[in-house]
Amino acid sequence: MPTRRNIYFYHKRDEEMMEKVSPLYNLAKEHDFNIVTDYRKANIIVSVGGDGTFLQAVRKTGFRDDCLYAGISTTGSLSLYCDFHLDDTAKMVEAMTYEQVEVRRYPTIEVTIDDQTSFQCLNEFSIRSAIIKTFVIDVLIDDLQFETFRGDGMIVATPTGSTAYNKSVNGSVVDPMLPCMQVSELASLNNNRYRTLGSSFILSGSRKLTLKVVQDGNDHPTMGMDNEALSIQHVEKIDVRLSEKIIKTVKLKDNSFWEKVRRTFL
Ligand code: NAP
Ligand code: MN
Questions:
Q1: Which ligand is closest in space to the CA of residue 167?
Q2: 118 has a pLDDT exceeding 70
Q3: Do 71 and 128 share a structural domain?
Q4: For residue 74, how far is its CA from the centre of ligand 2 (angstroms)?
Q5: Residues 159 and 182 placed together within one structural domain of the fold
Q6: Cβ distance 121 to 108 under 8 Å?
Q7: Proximal ligand: closest to the CA of 81
Q8: 222 Cβ closer than 6 Å to some ligand 1 atom
Q9: What is residue 174's predicted lDDT score, i.e. its pLDDT?
Q10: Is residue 252 part of a domain?
Q11: Which residues are catalytic?
Q12: Same domain, 44 and 160
């Protein structure tokens, strides 16, 4: 099926980068790939940069679950989303010429703000106070009032996002073969008046998490979807659940999740 070979490259368009990626374009052409400039026509989406670039590539192309994504690193080392070095063309050719490409599936989360705007995240949804004062969030699990959080903010991470922001606040690293989401605190206030669980917790893929921002004046937090800030400022209620849409990447010999964790952190 020739349409399976439509490839879209996502990267910076400055002169230096264009020079760096031109061998990639040639390689793709040599192997009978059809390079498309409209990502909607692509079956394969290749990001060239770092993990941050991969997150943007997925977001800007609309979290396509009918496409295969691949990350090519320009930083000199492989990372969580980048399985190819820019200059290791032999490995790319090997991947391109596989008869049947096996895929890895990464769960994503779906976030809905005030029952109106919805978006997906591949790493995490984050919410934090935009002022020096703490802010207060009621945390509900499947509509059960679970705790009242007071502090800097919270992070809801996907399994692949568990090694990013979530890890910096002592969250666990989660195997992406588990469809779930992890909730972590940012500097919660804990004393005789205010109490939260204090540790991160992991919710099954069938749960719904609701964050209700208590409207006490500090209700204009900063919200982030992966590496992009949300333009919405005022918020009352946030619902987070596992999305039905997954992100597919190429499964290679050396890129199991735990291989990635080892090469990145150990
Ligand atoms: P950035 O500030 O450059 O990212 C911080 C670092 O996280 C970069 O080294 C980035 O890799 C790496 N990274 C991204 N996704 C990762 C993942 N799933 N596992 C392990 N490392 C990962 O911003 P960015 O590159 O646009 O990345 C956005 C992400 O940064 C957010 O989604 C959030 O997870 C994370 N973040 C972390 C903190 C923190 O740890 N205190 C604060 C804010 C945001 P590259 O250099 O390859 O891009
Ligand atoms: Mn980055």
A1: 1
A2: yes
A3: no
A4: 11
A5: yes
A6: yes
A7: 1
A8: no
A9: 98
A10: no
A11: 51
A12: no
Structure tokens at 78: 């492989």
Atom number in ligand 1 closest to CA 73: 47
Residue 199 CA to ligand 1 centre (angstroms): 21
Q: Residue 119: give its domain's CATH number.
A: 2.60.200.30
pLDDT tens per residue, range 192-226: 999 999 999 999 999 999 999 999 888 889 999 99
Would residue 161 count as lying in a domain? yes
- Strands 117-121 and 103-113 come out as antiparallel
pTM, two decimal places: 0.96
Total count of domains within the chain: 2
Q: Which domain holds residue 182?
A: 108-244
**What are the pLDDT digits (tens) for 42-77?**
999 999 999 999 999 999 999 999 999 999 999 999
> Computed over its alpha carbons, how large is the radius of gyration of the chain?
20
> Which pLDDT does position 1 carry in this prediction?
42
User: pLDDT at residue 29 above 50?
Assistant: yes
The per-residue pLDDT of the chain, averaged, comes to 94
Residues 137 and 204 in one domain: yes
The answer to whether residue 1 sits within a structural domain is no
Residue 209 lies in a domain: yes
Indicate whether residue 162 lines ligand 1 (CB < 6 A).
no
Kindly state if the Cβ of 52 falls inside 6 Å of ligand 1: yes
DSSP state, residue 63: -
The secondary structure of 177-230 as a DSSP string is: TS-EEEEEEEEE--SSS-----S-EEEETT--EEEEE--SS----EEEETTEE-
Domain check: are 44 and 78 in the same one?
yes
Q: Is the CB of 161 under 6 A from ligand 1?
A: yes
